[in-house]
């Protein structure tokens, strides 16, 4: 409760006091009782009530989120400057104020009856460039221009919402949307369309002493026939995409199988080459070993031959040492040459 309301409340109490004193005075007078003192109280209470009522009628408190236009008997019927937030004085019973909110206000037009200012389906019906019927839900966020509140009162009073905001918004939305095809509205040009509507409404509101804060394109709906056609088209596109995916999947599987087969063939070739190279290496090593063995045997035979050449009886000695120690008599064929000299075979003396 602000000061002006407090003063008005006290003034109302003063008038009740005046009425009570008057009733009491009349009652005492009808009974023949003295009323001289009461008459003075009545006059004083009446003067106080008049003063408080005058003060209460002249005091105006403007909230921080408000401003007021003063309607007066002079100055062309309206003060040139509006009243801003705070306490102000106007001439009682000669001037009055019209208060405007300077907060942002939202006007919504929607198919959902509980969302908008108008009950029921209040969406905007639009015929697109290609002849399709669409339904648009939108919200217009605006505010009163504080510097033009007096002009707003002169042109629209307080009916600017129904007289300006609603019809201009619906008209601009229809005009701009009709310049686009339904596919353009749904896809890439929706933002462009929304920006055009915003620009046009900004200019219109500015000329009519309002400030457009924002325009929101809430939703776009289609007719049932078009929605069904779009759904069927999307299903067909999804099926085509699915078929394409299956083909690509089969291609990938075939490519994977080819790569696996190629890898197996390459592995087999590599293994065969490795085995062949291993056999070649093994054969070469075996040949070298045989050559070395042959060379060693030849060298050994050469050494043996050289030793026998220098010691011819060494072979006989080796023969005798290899005989079994149990052999006492050895028979040889008559026609065979003696292996041992006769002198060595003679009986001991």
Give me some keywords for this one:
349 residues, alpha+beta, Tetrahydropterin Synthase, Chain A, 3 domains, two-stranded antiparallel sheet, 9 helices, elongated, disordered C terminus
Topology:
Blueprint: H1 3-30, H2 36-58, E1 59-62, E2 66-71, E3 86-89, E4 96-101, E5 105-109, E6 124-127, E7 133-144, H3 149-156, H4 160-177, H5 182-186, H6 190-207, E8 210-222, H7 224-310, H8 314-322, H9 342-345
Antiparallel strand pairs: 1-3, 2-4, 5-7, 6-7, 7-8
Give an overview of the whole structure:
- The chain has 349 residues and is α+β, with helices and mostly antiparallel strands.
- It has three domains: 98 residues, no CATH class; 118 residues, Tetrahydropterin Synthase, Chain A (2-Layer Sandwich), CATH 3.30.479.30; 92 residues.
- Strands 5, 6, 7 and 8 form a four-stranded antiparallel β-sheet that branches. The protein has a two-stranded antiparallel sheet with strand order 1-3. Strands 2-4 form a two-stranded antiparallel sheet.
- The chain is elongated and about 205 Å long.
- The termini are far apart.
- The relative contact order is 0.06.
- The C terminus is likely disordered.
């Amino acid at each position: 409760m602000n000061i002006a309301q407090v003063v008005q409340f006290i003034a109302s109490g003063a008038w009740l006091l005046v009425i009570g004193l008057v009733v009491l005075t009349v009652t005492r007078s009808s009974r023949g009782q003295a009323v001289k003192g009461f008459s003075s109280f009545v006059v004083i209470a009446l003067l106080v009530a008049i003063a408080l009522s005058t003060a209460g009628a002249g005091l105006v408190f403007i909230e921080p989120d408000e401003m007021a236009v003063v309607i007066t008997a002079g100055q062309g019927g309206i003060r040139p400057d509006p009243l801003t937030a705070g306490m102000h004085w106007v001439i009682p019973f000669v001037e009055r104020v019209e208060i405007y909110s300077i907060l942002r206000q939202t006007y919504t037009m929607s198919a959902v009856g509980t969302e908008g200012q108008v009950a029921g389906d209040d969406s905007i019906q639009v015929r697109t460039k290609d002849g399709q019927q669409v339904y648009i839900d939108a919200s217009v966020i605006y505010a009163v221009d504080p510097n033009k509140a007096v002009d707003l009162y002169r042109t629209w009073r307080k009916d600017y919402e129904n007289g300006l905001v609603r019809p201009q918004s619906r008209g601009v939305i229809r005009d701009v949307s009709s310049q686009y095809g339904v596919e353009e509205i749904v896809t890439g040009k929706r933002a462009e369309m929304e920006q055009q509507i915003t620009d046009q409404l900004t200019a219109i509101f500015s000329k009519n002493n309002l400030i457009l804060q924002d325009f929101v394109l809430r939703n776009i709906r289609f007719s049932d026939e078009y929605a069904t056609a779009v759904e069927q088209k999307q299903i067909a596109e999804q099926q085509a995409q699915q078929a394409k995916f299956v083909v690509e999947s089969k291609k990938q599987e075939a490519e994977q199988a080819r790569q696996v087969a190629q890898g197996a063939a390459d592995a087999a070739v590599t293994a065969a080459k490795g085995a062949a190279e291993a056999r070649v290496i093994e054969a070469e090593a075996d040949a070298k070993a045989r050559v070395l063995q042959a060379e060693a045997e030849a060298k050994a035979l050469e050494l043996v031959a050289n030793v026998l050449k220098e010691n011819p009886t060494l072979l006989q000695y080796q023969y005798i040492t290899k005989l079994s120690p149990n052999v006492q008599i050895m028979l040889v064929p008559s026609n065979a040459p003696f292996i041992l000299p006769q002198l060595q075979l003679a009986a001991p003396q």
